[in-house]
UniProtKB/TrEMBL annotation:
Listed name of the protein: NAD-dependent epimerase/dehydratase domain-containing protein
Organism: candidate division WWE3 bacterium GW2011_GWA1_41_8
PANTHER family cross-referenced by the UniProt entry: UDP-GLUCURONIC ACID DECARBOXYLASE 1, UDP-GLUCURONIC ACID DECARBOXYLASE-RELATED
TM annotation in the entry: 430-457
GO biological process, one term: D-xylose metabolic process
Swiss-Prot/TrEMBL keywords: Decarboxylase, Lyase, Membrane, NAD, Transmembrane, Transmembrane helix
Length: 1035
């Protein structure tokens, strides 16, 4: 559904708005309503919702998604609806200990009111999803420190319960006073596919323990009970209540006939486990004993609703969705089950979202498989020949037959002996010679061969899996699938042989080593399976890279992504299992050789997790970004950091990139002075320039070249978009900014470029020098003279990047990631969900939103020259406490050393406008400039203003060539960051300015009196954002 359309009620199909529709329950409800031909509008702020839950619905013509906070308001496109379902704030306390209680309270108060008002305006039916736990709760009688409970879990649970009680009261008031068409649905613990394993009370915890391969823990006697309903049954109840006229003004409690105790759940999971597990009883955690809820369910007959999915069936479906190999034949002896599990391939045991192996997976991976050790690719299976016996095994077999003959009873021999040996002596000699041979053979069979085979298969698998990322970065997805498949086979075989060594480890007292090593192999097996399906899911990205090239004749469609979405979900499930297995590994128990490699594997798991999240977001957003349905236009800004500005440098050139149907429709590069010249020629009214630009550059109007003044790149980007539209009438969908360091990194990949217009070769080694040299060309605004050096360079560089051979793509992607991490490339997207991802990763150039100590130094060259080429920066930041209350004080010294030798342009005096961004609530206490021959107190002249939520301390500083100048500033940190009995930790987020690279820094934390810490001083080069966390302890 196009987002630009106005959404209003329609007689053709019911329009349903779901607040919190990207959550666990909301995503299932959205799917069910779409199947009933309803129009579904989802509002979610993604605090607990997940975009990949509903990403597959984005292409549905009757589905729309808005990233919106219902506490603030609704998107202007939403005019009226037929039904409003309030699911937001339902799961707030369950997902993260970092979730703030305030979110749940506001969502159920302000958010509920806003939704009720919308229902009133639209004459719509309204349903509030509440909780059966509104019957429970506690409140402190003497202090606000623990108002809702003694523990963090109690605080979050019962504050959410209180929020639901208030939401119900609001609904009642609207029903009584406004005659609003309302109903309330109280829900118990809900479980099923997509549930968060941290949620759903004791069930969530026990499921997680089972998935992690741990024994099941019961705290206390395990007799406390909770009601559980499968998510599909909940969806059925909501739909029935919503579309039933008899439900107005009523409250329904969707609960099953009987609750389940923790003990019952534990032993049910034990029967479903695919291995032997124990149920262990532990001391109960002291929490408030909740009163068991037994709500009235007599009115459920109005809905004709009943439980369709039994508790056991629901648990099985949930486990299978997560890819867990469920033992559904619990009546069989455990040993028989274990043997059967060995005969099944691991691929067959891990299912897709629907709980069944997809046809593609069956055809490609598990056709005619009998066991893990004989796992083959489909091609190998088709032409499979009878296997020849393993030579070593045959040799051992022969040896065993010799031993058997030696032990045959003499009475069975057909040849009579010539003589009888002396009593016992000959037999003793024979036995003495045979026993060592037998022992050696047994050790070889039971230890030597399994050890060797396990090691050999694991080594081969490791070699295969290491090639997968390289192949994927080259978009060689077929080869990547082959390598990942091979790795899976070999890790599985290694696991099988290693499992034969358990007794030997136990015998030698190394059972912990065996368990941890086994978990590593299990995790690696799941990882390789994830890599296989991830390689399949990456196929559309390969097609897109070939399509987007300017000279390509191929076309691309959004359906390419949809075809492989299930493969990605399977990859994600497998990866979660890999992580779960690895969490049970104790690195101290691993053998030496494996311990050396485990750090590398740990880093791979961490990187893979991040990449999967990005991949999920990319699959949902990329079709829109590349203009599949409608043309998209992006501004690319080339910033010269030799003339440093807040977002990276002076904007000397720009490009307009137009994408349509996944292809580059147009790419034009121009000098910034051409559109800027139009402002004066046509006497266009633009906003006023910021005060520092007025003062030092004498420009009253704001031009594009100076519009990147806001240190938050999204803010500057929006200013630039507005100006560009004013000048050209062209609306753009995003802004990308790059600097000279970006160009240098790309030249490392592409190699030198020959610029015909300048008759010279530009390489990574001479880029800065040649850029500085050609800066002396200064053309008139709006002129048609020869394009600037950076304009020509940018055009040639983009041309070369798209022509890179596949062998250079891994380095290319590595450099692109480096550019984003070091802020040499910033991306802002207008009205696209992927913008939130860019902000989360720190790639959109916005001010980081942190509650800890914050430091961001923004230098801006307002001298009209390229003096930054000659200036070296050093920053020293010290934190100390001089008062008993633990108030922290920051001492900041900025040192600027100008290495230039004259005042001739493009060098000259460095006129630097300095902004020091600090945490909100910081108080400036002193400021002075130290020149080579004098010192000046500028405290009274410092400008104090705001940049976003942060305080900004500002002043100009002039540095002459061959001079060294220091700016020294002191300020008190906010009281909330003080060190005291309630806060024994200090944290700092130090944000790096785009366009900088070699700034030196030092940071030192001096503990308050009576406290001590570990490492408290750090120094280095500020190549990216830095975070420091310091824990304090009493001496």
């Amino acid at each position: 559904m196009p987002r630009k359309n106005v959404i209003r009620k329609s007689a053709l199909s019911p329009t349903v708005l779901i607040a919190g529709g990207a959550g666990f329950i909301g995503s299932h409800l959205s799917e069910a309503l779409l199947l009933q031909d309803a129009r579904v509008i989802v509002l979610d702020n993604f605090k607990t919702g997940r975009d990949f839950y509903i990403g597959h619905l984005l292409t549905h013509p009757k589905f729309a998604l808005y990233d919106a906070d219902i506490n603030v308001g609704f998107p202007p496109e939403i005019e009226s609806v037929d039904y409003v379902i309030h699911l937001a704030g339902l799961e707030e306390y369950l997902y993260s200990e970092e979730q703030v209680n305030l979110d749940a309270l506001l969502t159920n108060a302000v958010g509920t009111k806003n939704l009720l008002d919308l229902a009133n305006r639209s004459h719509a039916k309204f349903l509030l999803a509440s909780s059966i736990y509104v019957y429970q709760g506690m409140m402190s009688q003497i202090t606000l420190d623990s108002y809702f409970g003694r523990t963090n879990i109690e605080e979050k649970k019962y504050s959410a319960t209180e929020a639901k009680r208030y939401a119900e009261a609001l609904v009642w008031e609207y029903y009584k006073k406004n005659d609003t068409n309302v109903r309330i649905m109280r829900l118990p613990e809900v479980y099923g596919p997509k549930m968060d394993l941290e949620a759903s009370g004791n069930l969530g915890r026990l499921l997680k323990e089972l998935m992690d391969g741990k024994d099941l823990n019961i705290y206390g006697e395990g007799v406390e009970k909770e009601h559980y309903v499968y998510v599909n049954d909940v969806v059925s109840g909501i739909v029935r209540a919503l579309f039933n006229d008899r439900t107005v003004g009523k409250i329904y409690s969707l609960i099953p006939p009987e609750p389940y105790s923790v003990l019952e759940i534990a032993f049910l999971l034990k029967t479903l486990a695919n291995r032997e597990i124990k149920v262990e009883f532990k001391q109960k955690i002291k929490e408030m004993e909740p009163r068991q809820a037994y709500p009235d369910t007599s009115n459920l007959k109005d809905l004709r609703w009943e439980i369709k999915t039994s508790f056991k069936d629901g648990i099985i479906k949930t486990l299978m969705w997560y890819g867990y190999d469920v033992n559904q034949h619990s009546f069989k002896p455990a040993k028989f089950i274990e043997e059967k599990n060995r005969e099944k391939t691991l691929i067959d045991s891990l299912t897709t979202v629907e709980g069944k192996v997809s046809p593609e997976a069956e055809n490609e991976l598990i056709s005619s498989l009998s066991n893990v050790a004989e796992f083959h690719t489909p091609e190998e299976i088709k032409g499979k020949k009878e296997k020849k016996p393993f030579p070593l095994a045959e040799a051992i077999k022969g040896k065993i037959s010799i031993f058997k003959n030696l032990f045959k009873k003499e009475g069975r021999s057909q040849t009579k002996p010539q003589s009888i040996p002396p009593a016992g002596k000959s037999r003793n000699k024979i036995m003495l010679s045979i026993v060592p041979a037998v022992l050696f053979a047994l050790i070889l069979l039971t230890v030597g061969i399994p050890s060797f085979m396990s090691y050999a298969y694991a080594k081969k698998a490791t070699s295969d899996i290491r090639e997968v990322p390289v192949l994927l970065s080259q978009f060689k997805t077929t080869e990547a699938q082959t390598k990942a498949n091979s790795a899976f086979q070999n890790f599985s075989k290694s696991q099988r042989f290693f499992s034969q060594l358990g007794w030997a480890f136990s015998l030698t007292g190394n059972r912990d080593m065996y368990n941890s090593s086994s978990k590593v192999l299990s995790s690696a097996t799941y990882s390789s399976r994830a890599a296989y399906y991830f390689s399949k899911a990456a196929v559309p990205f390969s097609s897109m890279w070939e399509t987007i090239k300017p000279n390509s004749e191929k076309e691309f469609s959004a359906e390419e992504f949809e075809k492989y979405r299930s493969d990605f979900q399977t990859a994600r499930n497998s990866f979660q299992l890999a992580q779960a297995e690895y969490k049970n590994v104790d690195k101290d128990d691993l053998p030496g050789p494996l311990k050396e490699q485990i750090t590398e594997y740990e880093n791979i798991l961490s990187a893979a997790g991040q990449n999967l999240d990005l991949f999920a977001d990319g699959m949902n957003s990329l079709p829109d970004i590349i203009g599949i349905d409608s043309s998209k236009k992006y501004l690319i800004l080339f910033q010269n950091n030799n003339e440093l500005r807040p977002t990276g440098g002076f904007i000397g050139s720009y490009a307009l990139l137009e994408l349509e149907k996944g292809k580059i429709k147009n790419l034009s590069i121009d000098d910034i002075y051409n559109p800027d010249g139009q402002i004066d020629v046509r006497e266009l009214e633009t906003p006023e320039s910021p005060a520092p630009i007025k003062e030092f550059l004498k420009e009253e109007k704001l031009y594009l070249r100076n519009a990147n003044w806001n240190p938050s790149f999204p803010q500057s980007a929006r200013e630039i978009q507005d100006l560009y539209y004013l000048i050209t009438g062209t609306k753009t969908d995003g802004v990308i900014a790059v600097d000279l360091y970006f160009a240098k990194n790309m030249l490392d990949v592409t190699g030198p470029l020959f610029l015909t217009a300048y008759n010279e070769e530009i390489s990574a080694s001479n880029l800065y020098e040649r850029t500085q040299f050609h800066s002396e060309f200064n053309y008139e605004n709006g002129s048609d003279q020869k394009r600037s050096f950076l304009t020509v360079l940018g055009s040639k560089l983009l041309e070369k990047m798209f022509a890179l051979p596949s062998g250079q793509l891994p380095v290319f992607w590595s450099k692109m990631y480096e550019n984003l991490e070091q802020r040499h490339m910033q991306i802002y997207l207008t009205n696209n969900p992927f913008g939130a991802v860019l902000q989360r990763e720190g790639w959109d150039g916005s001010l980081a939103g942190v509650g800890k100590d914050y430091l961001y130094i923004v230098n801006s060259n307002l001298g009209g020259n390229k003096a930054n080429y000659f200036v070296r920066n050093t920053v020293d930041y010290n934190i100390m406490s001089e008062t008993r209350d633990g108030l922290l004080r920051g001492n900041l010294t900025l040192t600027y050393e100008h290495t230039g030798e004259g005042t001739a342009w493009p060098g000259g005096i460095y006129t630097n406008y300095v902004r020091i961004l600090t945490q909100e609530g910081s108080k400036l206490t002193g400021a002075r400039i130290v020149y080579p021959d004098r010192e000046e107190d500028i405290f009274g002249n410092m400008i104090i203003t705001k940049a976003g939520k942060y305080n900004s301390f500002e002043t100009p500083v002039l540095i002459e060539p061959q001079k060294r100048v220091q700016l020294k500033v002191t300020y008190d940190l906010p009281i909330g960051l003080s060190i005291n009995a309630n806060n024994m930790n200090y944290s700092l987020f130090w944000q790096k300015q785009p366009g900088t690279q070699d700034d030196k820094f030092s940071f030192k934390f001096e503990p308050p009196f009576g406290l001590e810490t570990g490492q408290s001083s750090f120094d280095g080069t500020l190549t990216g954002d830095k975070q420091f966390n310091i824990a304090l302890d009493p001496k």
